Every structure is written in C-alpha cells, then in structure tokens.
Putative membrane protein (Streptomyces clavuligerus), 349 residues
Amino acid sequence: MNGFSVASLVAGIVCCLPPLGLILGIVALVQIKKKGQRGAGMAIAGTVLSAISTLLMLLLLVTGGAAELWRGFKEGMDEAARSHSTLDLRTGQCFNLPGDGPLEDREALSVEVVPCAGEHEAEVTGSFTLQGFDAFPGDGRIDPLAERRCEELNWMYARDEWVVGGRMELYYYTPTKESWRLGDRAVTCTFATPKGDRTAGSVRRDPTTVDDAHQLAYLTAETRLYLTGNTVPDAEYAADPDGYRTWARESAGVFADQAEVVRAYNWPERLAGPMERRAGEYERAAAAWRKAAGARDEEAFWDHMLTVDEVVADGPAEVEIRKLLKLPSVPPEYPEDTEGAQGAGDTGG
C-alpha cells in the first residue's frame, strides 16, 4: 500500500490544504505505476477531491467569498468572546441580556459583555458569598440578604446618587438549586436599567476611578448618609414601630459621625466654608433623626423625617460643593414609577 495514496485521500477529505492532497495524489500515482504498489483507487479519489477543493478555494478567492467567510468566522468568534455566563461576571463589567423588556422578565444563563463606555443595560458592582447554609436556603431567604448586601456594594461602587439618578436600579443574580449543588454560593450585584432600556458610561466612582481625594472624601460621606437613609425596615411603621425607632437612632449616629469626619478632613480653602455648612446640615439632620427615634406616634415620626429631607436633600451647600469639586451639580430626576423602587433579582445558574 502506497503511503502517499493514503495521505492524499485524507487531505482530500479534510479539505484543509487542498493543493497538498492534489500533489500527494499525483506523487502516489507515479510511484504506484513504477513500483506496482496498491492504493491507486485511494490516490485517484484523493486527487479528485483535492482538485475540486482547490478549484473551490480559487473561486472563493476570486469572488471575495473567502473574505466573507473569514469575516463571518471572526464575527462568530468575537460574539463568543463577549458571551459570558452569569456565574462568570466580574466587578466593573457592563453587559446586555438577550431579548427585550424589563430585566426581571428575562431570565438568562449567559449575557453579552460590552464596553461600559457604550450602550448597556447593567453594570456589575461586586459580589459576595452566601454563608451559614448547609442546604439550599431558597429564594425567600436569599433575596433579603441580596437586597441588603447589594445595596451597600452598589453605592460604595458608585458613590454618587447624582450620577446614577433614576436611570439605574439594584439588580442581582443568585444561585439556583441546581447551581448550589455544584458549589455555587455567589450573589452578583449590579446596577441595571429598570425597563431594559440602555445607558452609556460607567457609574463607578470609587478609589479605582476617582483620582481627586477631595471628591472621594465628599462622595464617601454623602454615600454613608444615603445608605443609612435607605435601610428602612421592611414592615410598615404600624407593624414595627420599634424597628423604625431603632433605624432613626442608628441613622442619627451615622449623621453625627459624618459631620465629625467632614470637619476633621483637611479641605482646601475654597471648600472649607461650604463643607462646614454641610457638616452643620448633617448635625441638624442628626437632631431630627434623634427626635424621630423618640416620637410618640407615627405622625410625629414622619414629621421629623420630613425635617431630615428638608435639611439634607439637594440643599444650597451641596450644589455649591459639587460645583467647586467639578461634580454633577444638577439634582437627578426620578421617574414617578421608579420612586422608592425595590431591587430585583434573578437566578444566575
């Protein structure tokens, strides 16, 4: 059996190098004729197949079909590279989900990772590991944990409510019962557009992206206040008045602490006066929180909470500070249907 005849047939069938199969077939036929070896059928078959493949390759090159095939192959590879399992998402990545509509209505095992500078539906802010469960705890126990932890991770990632505004909300991926069996314990936290529309630009404003120490100090103080103000008890006031009083008492402490932090920071001269006024607003809000903690009834509680909002939210000192720090200085607008909206979650396994 002539070895070149076998090689020619294999090359002709595989079609990866058509001219090689053609050459090997011709060499095999010459040797078989001279030496009387077997394998002429395979050599002829390999030669014919290779000749056809060679002609097709030449035709593709002449008509531009090869370039089109290469572009299609490259686009397919690029798309595969962008496709990530929801289990593999990393902090700082932006992504889009397949399909249209609100994200909570679109379950997906994989998403398309895209540059944050371009249009996207969501941005990963961090993740944490569920602990203390021997068996799968179920969504009813996972979701409250995800809400609380992701709220903190999201805002310590973004740190500027005026950048996030009403365009993005809390969204997270949690383990499924199936992925739990495989060892999945991670909850992935994101900011996402509530209706599945798209936004552009990262909302990240943490030490990895903010070089100005004064900006970072101010944004961190404001974020601490925002987070404590958002840790409202799950139940209505009437069902849990002690929970609301505890929330008010703890928030009073956070506001007072941040007033001290702001006063202790070495602000440049242009910011010293405005930051002192802002610290004063923190202290007045802390006093209102303390009064709310001691309120005798629900009406009195919310009256004091109204004072907190009036003192802290979007006041003149805050706008002045933002202008001096070259931060966004126009208060964000919140669509009516997203005011106070809760986070949404999805199983990521």
